[in-house]
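2024-03-11 09:14:02 INFO worker-7 job=invfold-0412 stage=load source=structure_tokens
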């Protein structure tokens, strides 16, 4: 990230589901939320950092939520909705939007950590009606091109994968098998 002003008050708003699935689908990796927070804040004054999560009654999710809090995020959670036909839905788009609008008068810069194009009208409103600088942090490969265009600064996590991702460690035997499969292609 660049153009950090020391006196800026910044708020970070993370769409955890969007980031989780982008990292998983693009790289079979996990997101390093600590590095995202560090990069997004820079040398500015952090006012709020909120991570929006969906509770799905998965074994390790509470440990993950606790880790987010330890890093410095306020965690807002809601239950996964399961409909009669079996369809599942879980998103925080409106909640994240409402929080940014409510907090905008206390912030100079708002960082939305998501590539979801549904946030384009929000970004437009925050910039033009409320006067905030809007930054987006996401994977360029899976983010909305319109969202990237509408914000003041876009940080493409694809450009520094080692910083923003946590790759699974595989044991030596699996690595050797993988190398053997890849060697004819190299």
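2024-03-11 09:14:09 INFO worker-7 stage=emit residues=186
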């Amino acid at each position: 990230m660049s153009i950090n002003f020391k006196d800026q008050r910044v708020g970070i708003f993370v769409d955890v589901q969007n980031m989780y699935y982008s990292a998983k689908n693009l790289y079979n990796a996990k997101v390093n939320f600590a590095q995202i927070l560090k990069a997004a804040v820079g040398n500015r004054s952090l006012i709020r950092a909120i991570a929006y999560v969906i509770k799905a009654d998965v074994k390790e999710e509470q440990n993950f939520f606790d880790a987010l809090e330890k890093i410095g995020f306020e965690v807002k959670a809601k239950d996964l909705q399961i409909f009669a036909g079996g369809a599942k839905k879980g998103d925080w788009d409106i909640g994240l939007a409402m929080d940014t609008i409510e907090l905008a008068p206390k912030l100079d810069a708002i960082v939305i950590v998501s590539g979801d194009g549904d946030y384009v009208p929000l970004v437009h409103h925050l910039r033009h009606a409320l006067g905030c600088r809007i930054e987006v942090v996401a994977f360029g490969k899976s983010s909305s091109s319109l969202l990237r265009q509408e914000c003041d600064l876009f940080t493409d996590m694809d450009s520094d994968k080692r910083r923003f991702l946590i790759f699974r460690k595989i044991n030596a035997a699996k690595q050797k098998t993988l190398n053997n499969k890849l060697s004819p292609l190299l």
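2024-03-11 09:14:09 INFO worker-7 stage=report msg="Residues 181-186 have pLDDT under 50 and may be disordered."
2024-03-11 09:14:10 INFO worker-7 job finished
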